[in-house]
Amino acid sequence: MRDLENKVIYQIYPKSFKDTTGSGYGDINGIIEKLDYLKELGVDYIWLSPCCKSPQHDNGYDISDYRQIDERFGTNEDYERLIQEAKKRGMKIMMDLVLNHTSNEHIWFQKALKKDEKYYDYYIWRDEPNELTSMFGGSAWTYSEEVGKYYLRLFDETQPDLNWSNEEVRNDLYDMVNYWIEKGVEGFRLDVIDLIGKEPDKLIVGKGPKFYEYLKELNHKTFSDKLLTVGECWCSSIEESYKMCNPDGLTQAFHFHYQCLAHINGDKWNRAPINLEALCQCFDQWENGYTGIEAIVMNNHDLPRMISVWLNDKEYRKESAKLLITLFGLLKGNLYIYQGEEIGMTNAYFNTIDKYKDVETFNKYKELVEKGLPEEEIMEIIQKVSRDNARIPMQWDDSDNAGFSTGKPWIDVNENYREINVKKDRNSSDGIFDYYKSIIAYRKKHYDTIETTATFRTDGTMITMEKEHFIVYANFSDKVAEIPSKEKVLFHNYKEIRENTLRPYEVIVFEK
Ligand code: TEU
After folding, report:
1. What DSSP designation does 168 have?
2. pTM beyond cutoff 0.90
3. Contact at 8 Å (CB) between 462 and 505?
4. What does each C-alpha distance from 332 to 146, 345, 449, 455 come to in angstroms?
5. Fewer CB atoms inside 10 A, N or C side of the chain?
6. Reduced to 3 states, what is the DSSP secondary structure of residue 366?
7. 3-state SS of 215-234?
8. Residue 218 phi/psi, 5° resolution?
9. Which entry of 156, 232, 341, 358 is annotated as an active-site residue?
10. Ligand 1 pocket by C-beta < 6 Å: which residues?
């Protein structure tokens, strides 16, 4: 499995990456157009959020045909061409597998609704709902008039959960995974994979008793330990990661402990300011305490932008983006980059609810309105947390719609696109893209220096990360701090260096 370490994986949200037809949706040909851009950055794997056929109630995480590319994004031939074109450039395609649930428009569910002998049991039915709640708010059970029972759906009501205890369900899913492996897919991101072993009657949802057994079977019948696989599991511990990530399971799993530091009592809608002490502890736990391959992630399509959550995305935007990639980019494991991060894209900052598109955001909005919170307060929360913050179109240039589309984008572009875009960043002498490139190049060349144990310290506003060969000073505040200086500077985010001084949001890496 070690040959699957020290990789750079770039996540694309296809709907918002690049539109070549004017439909307002990004498409696969748009991704092909940008492959050289990704190659230049130093990307090894391109993870695409789901592009299979879907009514898009949850932006493709509600799949109605696992073997068909959604026509909004192109055709199966386009997808295969993407695989080949990426391969030509030495990059691999990682597919997003949504195995926990399907869309209610999937033929299996349609047949289940007709009480088909075989397919009824592909889903989970009960006469009465229990207390289980949906991740998107409200009960996890929806009543079907047709069937006269409730079905389980841990997400939206259009996403019925599959019944993994049915062997036929599992085998159908494995066949589908093998179908894509045959087409040349070389990696998988497994959506909410820890939910497949659920036991709804016992109110067990995550990492249920059969989870590890199912994972092993999936591994043995499909990707084995040859392809790069990453499981999406919220807040998994180190022990759980070992259980999941091994030659019989996955290469690695997301854990999101860094992001969860911003949540109060595990509630993502209730935000805490950054606590560098806790961040250092978390770095230390994973960097020194986990011997598997950590998945290093700052951003994805479900999270507000880390630069906007923790740093200064206004006056010190460039410095902040570089600070984050210096710290996270010098950790061992595999580095995940989410589209737009490499040019310092920020939260969307939409201030009216009609601009948002995400089902989870709407549910929350409704809930807060019912609670009687003033509109202004509600919008403040939504602005900070909504998943749409990361889902707005990629900002390519300063032309209309940020060069994303010639039509009307499915979701508005960020107003700041004339300032923040790929073209401008790449034309400037202190661009974020180039900085990312140099961190990635360093990782690839000097991974031995990254693999050494690390010490993390903080005084409350600054973090120091020390490894055998280098030391990083990162200022998370707008206060000036004093630091010892050394001669050889590996990375820094200000134009010139000032001896013994760390300015606002400055980061500097000295060779020891
Ligand atoms: O997300 C799983 C998940 O539990 C959360 O990340 C979720 O997005 C939400 O923030 C909970 O508050 C995965 C996908 O990444 C997400 O986009 C899908 O909506 C979800 O599964 C369902 O497939």
Report:
1. H
2. yes
3. no
4. 52, 24, 9, 13
5. C
6. helix
7. HHHHHHHCCCCCCEEEEECC
8. -60, -50
9. 232
10. 58, 61, 98, 135, 155, 191-192, 232, 234, 268, 301-302, 360, 387
Q: How far is the CA of 350 from the centre of ligand 1 (A)?
A: 21
Residue written as token pair 């595990």: 266
Q: Tokens 């899913």 sit at which residue? A: 173
Tens of each residue's pLDDT in the chain, 512 residues: 889 999 999 999 999 999 999 999 999 999 999 999 999 999 999 999 999 999 999 999 999 999 999 999 999 999 999 999 999 999 999 999 999 999 999 999 999 999 999 999 999 999 999 999 999 999 999 999 999 999 999 999 999 999 999 999 999 999 999 999 999 999 999 999 999 999 999 999 999 999 999 999 999 999 999 999 999 998 899 999 999 999 999 999 999 999 999 999 999 999 999 999 999 999 999 999 999 999 999 999 999 999 999 999 999 999 999 999 999 999 999 999 999 999 999 999 999 999 999 999 999 999 999 999 999 999 999 999 999 999 999 999 999 999 999 999 999 999 999 999 999 999 999 999 999 999 999 999 999 999 999 999 999 999 999 999 999 999 999 999 999 998 899 999 999 999 999 999 999 999 99
